[in-house]
Each structure stands twice: as structure tokens, then as C-alpha cells.
Write a structure and sequence with these properties.
By secondary structure, this protein is α+β, with helices and mostly antiparallel strands. It contains five helices and three strands, in the order αααββααβ. About 45% of the residues lie in helices and about 15% in strands.
Length: about 180
């Protein structure tokens, strides 16, 4: 039998208790059930083989998910372009709003415009943040910045100094309701 190569922390951790690998109790219950149902009594080599198989499956799924996301992003951009041009009669058909397409199966795709901003003058924006009560924020999160822009636009106020405001299109997909 091969000798175990010590890990760099082995000497300092030898007296420390092992912490649970899963901190979520309901998740741990699922794991315990699967241990009993699927893997009980397996040798370490067989467990390692099962782990290897599962990792390869996950890697394949991630690659497929990446390809599907590329496809979804491409289709979304093409749908946004189509909705912007307002030339296709599918927009607004079957009782849908002008910014939506309802499919024969009941699925609906809707394009909504939402405010978006880019910081073009960081110092001007920083000064605006200080003057408007955001000085305690070390860094203003993009989502917070977008919320400020949206609120000011709805109130017919100008955007914060240092920002360029435009729009981005958000596609919302609503699947048809099924009996399942």
C-alpha cells in the first residue's frame, strides 16, 4: 500500500474536529437518504468511480448549458431587434400587447425597455453621490445605481451627474400553464 503524502495543514489540524461538509440540514438529509439508497456498502474505489462519472456528467451538462445560453442570448438579441423594428405582424398577434408574441402553445415572450446607465464621468458621479446621501457607500453597486436612475426618470428628474442614460431590453418568457 502506498504511503499517504501529508497535506500542508495536517500537522496543525490533527487535533481539530472535522466540520460538517454540508451546513444546510435539509440538504444533509437528502444526502443521507441518497447515501443509503444509492451508495451504501460501496468500496472507496467504487465511490471514487461513481464520483468520477458524476463529475463527467456535470461537466457535459455545463458545456451543454453554455451552448444553450449562447443560443438563448442570440435569439434574445434577434427578438429585441425585431421588436425595435416593429415590422413583423407576430408582435401583438393573438391578443398580445404590441411588445409581446403569443405562441400557439400559449407561451408568451415580452420585450420591455428598462433604464440603464454607464458612468462616463466618475468624479462628477462621485460628487453627486456625496451630495445626495450616498457618501457612506464605499462603492455604489450597479443595481443601486440603476434603481436611482429609474426612480429619477419616473419622477421626471434628470439622471445623476456623470451618468449617461440609455435603455436595455429585457425579455420575459412566460410558459403556458399546464395541468402538471
Amino acid at each position: 500500500m502506498a504511503r499517504r503524502q501529508p497535506g500542508k495543514y495536517d500537522a496543525v489540524l490533527q487535533d481539530k474536529p472535522r466540520m460538517p461538509l454540508e451546513s444546510n440540514p435539509s440538504r444533509q438529509m437528502e444526502i443521507d437518504q441518497m447515501k443509503e439508497r444509492e451508495y451504501s456498502g460501496m468500496s472507496a474505489e467504487r465511490l471514487a468511480m461513481e464520483y468520477s462519472i458524476a463529475r463527467h456528467k456535470r461537466d457535459l451538462l455545463r458545456a451543454q448549458e453554455s451552448e444553450l445560453q449562447l443560443q438563448l442570448d442570440t435569439l434574445m438579441q434577434m427578438l429585441v431587434d425585431s421588436e425595435d423594428q416593429k415590422l413583423d405582424p407576430a408582435w401583438g398577434a393573438y391578443g398580445a400587447n404590441d411588445n409581446a408574441i403569443r405562441l400557439p402553445n400559449g407561451d408568451t415572450l415580452r420585450i420591455n425597455k428598462e433604464p440603464a446607465s454607464t458612468v462616463v464621468d466618475p468624479e462628477a458621479f462621485r460628487q453627486w453621490c456625496i451630495a445626495n446621501g450616498y457618501e457612506r457607500k464605499l462603492q455604489l453597486h450597479a443595481g443601486t445605481r440603476e434603481s436611482i436612475v429609474a426612480e429619477r426618470m419616473l419622477a421626471a428628474e434628470p439622471p445623476p451627474d456623470g451618468l449617461e442614460v440609455g435603455t436595455w431590453s429585457k425579455l420575459t418568457f412566460t410558459a403556458a400553464k399546464t395541468d402538471e
